[in-house]
Amino acid sequence: MTEVVLFHHARGCTEGVRAFADGLRAAGHTVHVPDLFDGVLPDSVEAGLALLRELGDEVDRRADRAVADLPAELVYAGFSAGEAVAQRLAQTRPGARGALLYESCIPVTGEWAFGPWPDGLPVQIHGADGDEFFAEDLPAARELAETAGPDLAELFLYPGGAHLFTDSSLPTYDAAAAALVLERSAAFLARVR
């Protein structure tokens, strides 16, 4: 069993995010799903991004509080905007076991970086190859995969152009691709125990 903290995307802690967490639980893992929006479910990605801008640094403070009483040996996972939270914690909170980065990726060098990628930290990155949001982050995802190296990093691209394709509660859901993301994520978690 691996312990995971899964951060939601800009549409909030939707039923689809919770269902994905349940899929990881069904594979035998403990999954924590903090609600960084305190129950607010924005009706669009744009509205969610506006809420994130309004909350500012409070999002990171909420995430830090959410993991404060959890063990250090976590896998950090996050969807889209939640990916940035997960990646920050994976790179900066000592003890991380791995990172599952969905539909986004932050550079590991340059002004946006949280710092260097930790030596020996495994990572999986998942995104749709036609997703306009993920397309902006694909160079960072490739950089991270190259930096971590083939023994530790996997980058998976899925056909389609939908953002948030893993969320079963949204119209952008792609059941086949989401099932493959879940399968690959569960395999990753089994390896990093």
From TrEMBL:
GO molecular function: hydrolase activity
Keyword Membrane: no
Signal peptide: none
InterPro entries: AB_hydrolase_fold (IPR029058), Dienelactn_hydro (IPR002925), Dienelactone_hydrolase-like (IPR051049)
Entry's EC annotation: 3.1.-.-
Pfam families per the UniProt record, alphabetical: DLH
Keywords from the named record: Hydrolase
UniProt keyword Hydrolase, yes or no: yes
Dienelactone hydrolase domain boundaries: 4-191
Record-given protein name: Dienelactone hydrolase family protein
Native source species: Actinokineospora guangxiensis
Top-level taxonomy: Bacteria, Bacillati, Actinomycetota, Actinomycetes, Pseudonocardiales
